[in-house]
Amino acid sequence: xxxxTVYSRSGCHLCELLIEDLAPMCESAGVRLNILDVDGQxxxxxxxxxxxxxxCDGENEISAWPLDEGRVRRWLGARRPAG
Length: 83
Fold this sequence. Notes:
Elements: E1 3-8, H1 13-29, E2 32-37, H2 42-48, E3 54-57, E4 60-64, H3 69-78
Parallel strand pairs: 1-2
Antiparallel strand pairs: 1-3, 3-4
């Protein structure tokens, strides 16, 4: 299953808003949404610090706050499985 990761932080209202907008887009495209708390691993904390939320496809950043819906939709559409 395809996956996007949101690097987030507990209690971050911007993170909550971004996830609220992103989740239905991912669900309708059959993409798993993985939400990781940057404070859970030092390398994430070092990389993102206070710059959350960040949406990634592996190591590639797709969007940050505010959510770039156009870019996310292009990513979702470009990676639809053939069938």
